[in-house]
Amino acid sequence: MPRSVPVVLAVLLALALTLTACDGGVHGTPGGSGVHDPYFPRAGNGGYDVGHYDLKLAYDPAGAHRLTGTATLTARATQDLTAFDLDLDGLHVDGVTVEGRSARWNRAGQELTVRPHDDLRDHETFHVTVRYSGTPQTLTDPDGSHEGWLRTADGALALGEPVGSMTWFPGNDHPSDKATYDIAITVPKGLQAVSNGELTRETNSSRGRTTFTWHTAEPMASYLATVAVGHYDISRSTIGKDRLPAYVAVDPAQTKASRKVLAKLPEIIEWEEHTFGAYPFSSTGVIVDRPQDAEYALETQNRPVFPGAPDTTTLVHELAHQWYGDSVTPSTWRDMWLNEGFATYAEWLWAEDHGGDSAQKTFDTLYAHGEDDHPHLWSFPPGKPSDAAHISDDPVYVRGAMVLHKIRQKVGDTAFRRILRGWAAAHRHGNADTGDFTAYVEKQAPDEDFGSIWRDWLYGDGKPETR
Ligand code: TRP
Ligand code: ZN
Predict the structure, then answer these.
(1) Domain span at residue 392?
(2) Could you tell me the pLDDT band of residue 27, with boundaries at 50, 70 and 90?
């Protein structure tokens, strides 16, 4: 086969060049500076997988609003590495070590590139520690909303969807790399610090500061990590026969307005367990605070954040995300409707089960809107948002929920409820994309044809012609 000779020679030459370019025993390359997310291409990094974040933070809301942090990541290399990136936006890096040896690093935009003293081998577990400090930033997203480190009247609140966690700790800031967390926050005495997971320690130092240590035992995407610093009215309780711990922290100015709706937390959790299956995490709760520059709720893991007293529907929505979004996390930001379509459908089901409109009625009312009187609703398909500025628009939330209703119409109520619970169980604590979902549904109802639902409702442009 003479034709392949030049190919073989070219391969050998390339190999020789690669080999001579390396000095030590490991022939590594740098990990990538992004994971090719279709909407946020620089988010996340290639070449490693984080298993655990250990964050030690100190924050003083007075004066310079200074944050001091030490982040130790336990990660596994997924290739031979000469260097790798972390995402970090703003702040000042004071030093980096890898496996305890000081490492070289440099910064360009949101990329912190670390060059370990020794190359890392594929599959090797390693520890990287970054010491940093400074005044953390608020980010403006493509849709004009604010996230990242937000100030409140008496402290701060960190919100990270989609890429704001990099404003307060270095990491692999993409939903595809979930990890466990230990977050310790030291604040001036008299203030409190609330985060994800369970409060394992509260210690007072002789220097007039208090450290709150929070442990997140189940895998968490970085966008769901939060810290709230300030004065809070705190109530602790347990829910249900399994005594699920609940930790509720409310800005004292919002306590009165929040009391009635927050009393529904046990009822909502129990209804959601009945509807979606076992609660996926070891604790629950709520944070109510008033960030400057942001007025949205967010499904931060274990305890969602509300920018003021929530209404029942929003509480149902954010708690439903604990199953859909937090436990089953989208593989990329294109799969957002797997979060928002489900959380919106949870609102419809809650109404239906509590004396409100049936989901069918809600669907019909929405479908009655045409492309001219409700252009927003039909402006792009839920399975393929037009661009990063529109990932939280109506088609993702409302038309996403309509996709679920179409499935329900086809398979019937019993099979549909089985799909809701089964989907949450099948990808519990993991990641999934839209293709995983359509394959799952088809497997649950092998005799049905979902072709037109996927084609017209999930991926089709414009208002589907048939309902
Ligand atoms: N996920 C939030 C919710 O549904 C809304 C939200 C807040 C959001 N920030 C975002 C959605 C950034 C997309 C991007 O309650
Ligand atoms: Zn939502």
Answers:
(1) 329-458
(2) confident
